[in-house]
């Protein structure tokens, strides 16, 4: 399920209708009953053929891009395969956290030594602790897990079948698996953390080893290893074997760099493209981890990059049309015995040269509020019962704007693309600013005007998310708060008139990471890896696809429609996809 030109499959809104793009790039369609084969019948009348864009170019690509920051790598000469463990990171930052629900950045990639192509990519719920290739079978054993922060050590034993890519979670009950080692074709040695740390002060340093035997590990099914089989004698008593969680990241980086060099390529880590923008002259701008802003020429060459210790998070085109505003994330870093945090950074960058033209000094971390002639900043460090104000910058310096209350990364994100004026979410109760939020607009006179309540369902509490202005309305995404986390159908995209009336709504199971429009279609990216196109007029699904690059799944963290009508997609693994409509 993919929008590439290399033989992927793209599902259309009809569940039994699939569009297929063969290697020659010519679209054809087929119909089939689910679970049955279908003849490949070319047709040019199918609407999906003209709607689904194709990836024409991938910027920032490189070997092992799919796994992010590597933590473990194992080379198997017998199968000529490489297993790599990595982390893409979370999909939240100080200015937005809603999209992190149901997300995991832990990845296991299996690559071929010839060409370093990713054969299989697996998402893991937990950090990966150990890898081991089976001595004979096309099988990879993976130990995962972590402490849940309050009581239990949870994890899985994953068995990845290298011929099919099928993944089996073999343990009946969750256990953190710290080590895996094949003792023979039939015997697998596991090192397990204890079930919990109840009355066990050594639980975080010790575990126990057990050997599990199967005549055919390739036939092991889901949850087939019972809870009793790997249990330590006398559990829940303290286990008796030291169990460490070693850091293999330096060795993994060396292995990947050497493998890439042997293939005549260079390897470096790129992660999380938080914002993308296209320019009138065809350049592509991006803000990502470790890079405040970078610029790609229409030729596909990297023109310049402004580095930063953490990286840019937002891009807002400046009113002069030749520069862009950006802000940087800031986290505390250990320096010696102390934790230090760098000063906030908000810069205006020249698109042509990458020169820093202007630097603002807000004194606190801020989000950029789009839609103003000069930059407008909203403080992120507000405390309850404190009357935080927008910071409005003019040629003479900062000016105090209207009160907006405190900000939290779940309730108040509301970055509006294509806005004719600035919009912000503001709570009506200063003591509890996360409640009863209103969508407000900032007028030319510097005053805020309430437009409508953010939640159109009185009994639901809605979190904020990305938004766009289209016509006399706003389209925005978010999620419904629930005490047990995001529920099925708890994420949404909604279009509302500026008077508050709901024109349509689209409910989903996963939160949106980004959205934009070309005027007729609303493009929505989800943290599940899905990309959906909605009809701007009525919200109906025009097409839906799962993002892949060269056969490996990925997820969009940002997207933008360029002035040329192309769709730019910034991925969680540091790549930028240029998608063009089919002609």
Explain this structure to me?
- This protein is mostly beta strands.
- Among the domains are: 9-52, no CATH class; 69-261, Beta Barrel (Lipocalin), CATH 2.40.128.
- The protein has two helices and 48 strands.
- The strands form 13 sheets. The protein has a six-stranded antiparallel β-sheet with strand order 19-20-21-22-25-26, with no helix packed on it.
- The two termini are 21 Å apart.
- Mean pLDDT is 87; it is low at 1-49.
Major sheet strand order: 19-20-21-22-25-26
The beta-strand count equals: 48
Content-based structural category:
mainly beta
The rounded Rg comes to: 25 Å
- Give unreliable regions as ranges: 1-49
Q: How many H/I helical runs? A: 2
Please state the average pLDDT score: 87
* Main sheet properties: 6 strands, antiparallel
Helix content: under 10%
- Architecture of the domain at 69-261, CATH level 2? Beta Barrel
CATH topology of the domain at 69-261: Lipocalin
Distance between the termini: 21 Å
- Rough outline: globular
Q: What fraction of residues sit in β-strands?
A: 35-45%
CATH class descriptor name of the domain at 69-261: Mainly Beta
